[in-house]
Amino acid sequence: MIDFVKTRYSQDLLDETDGVKIHKHNSWILIRASGTEPIVRIIIDSDSYDEACELQKEINNHISQLS
């Protein structure tokens, strides 16, 4: 999944320090595997609630393509 995200968002600024963090305008999305559970966490931060919701929809759509 991480490789898919890195490829899909290769035009954006990516930080791989702790998972994959995608910087978009005044927002970011962090996708990382849990260190204690068999899950992937997605954390979104934005100045705007609407922008955060759009980013959530966008990343969910991309990840659902993997199933």
Q: Helices, strands, pairings?
A:
Blueprint: H1 2-8, E1 13-15, E2 20-24, E3 27-33, E4 40-46, H2 49-64
Antiparallel strand pairs: 1-2, 2-3, 3-4
Oligomer: single chain
Low-confidence stretches: none
Shape: globular
Order of neighbouring strands in the sheet with most strands: 1-2-3-4
Order of helices and strands: HEEEEH
Strand content: 25-35%
Quickly name the level 1 CATH class: Alpha Beta
**Number of distinct beta strands:** 4
- The number of domains is 1
Structure notes:
The mean pLDDT is 89. The chain has 2 helices and 4 strands. It is globular and about 30 Å long. It has one domain: 2-Layer Sandwich (TATA-Binding Protein). A hairpin with a 2-residue loop joins strand 2 (20-24) and strand 3. The protein is α+β, with helices and mostly antiparallel strands. It has a 4-stranded antiparallel sheet with strand order 1-2-3-4, covered by helices on one side.
